[in-house]
């Protein structure tokens, strides 16, 4: 990959778009040449979904709807966190194996390396999310909103994934090695489970409910749920979909506004 960039750099610094596309291609080829990574990312998310669907579906009751309809939006929205752990690990591996050092020696914008990582892993996330959604439809999930609303929900999940990719890229840069990155990535679990993803926030103790109601994942989950549940969402959530979509977008932008510059500064400082 370095040879693909170096000739163009002979006459000056390679542009951001060109270098980003080249490094993104390298990251995607890594998945293509190691198909186990794609299979694992795809199957793992779907298996966890099926466990929740069949092991807890009979024990958790949601007024006015089946548990599978309640679960799917929450599971898919929070799935971006678990997929992100792989991003942190891959970023740390690139550092540990010297790939990042080789890129630093080239006359390319340093931010292109990070943008490429975020773009490539978001593409894998989109594929895994689409596959899990297909499995969800196969085991009883029903889209109560319009097809356009469903596509909007999918787009929101991909956007959430891209925002959180920057968090995990930062984690990988600070971790320094793959094992540490994987361990540090586990900080996402409280955000995933202490949210409205798997059970209604109203069922939680009052001291826990305060955090669950106001953390970003809950707004993101409820935005996806409001779009996919259609008329049922109003009765369950108490607000129209625009309420949750607008707030989730603000959270996504805020996360990127914080994590992206931190990642770039850390990368530049080595």
Could you walk me through the main structural features you see in this protein, from its secondary elements to its overall organization?
By secondary structure, this protein is mainly alpha-helical. The protein is built from 13 helices and no strands. The longest helix is centred in the N-terminal third of the chain and has 30 residues, at 67-96. The radius of gyration is 20 Å and the shape is elongated. The chain starts with a helix and ends with a helix. The model is unreliable at 1-12 (pLDDT under 50).
Give the topology.
Blueprint: H1 2-9, H2 16-33, H3 35-56, H4 67-96, H5 99-104, H6 111-138, H7 147-175, H8 178-184, H9 189-193, H10 206-214, H11 216-229, H12 231-237, H13 241-269
Beta-strand share of residues: under 5%
Number of helices: 13
Largest sheet at a glance?
Answer: none
| Overall residue-averaged pLDDT value | 85
Q: Which class of secondary structure composition applies to the elements? A: mainly alpha
Q: What share of the residues lie within helices?
A: over 70%
Radius of gyration, CA atoms, in whole angstroms? 20 Å
Write down the secondary-structure element order. HHHHHHHHHHHHH
Distance between the termini: 21 Å
Parts with pLDDT < 50 across at least 5 consecutive residues: 1-12
Record field, number of beta strands = 0
Shape: elongated
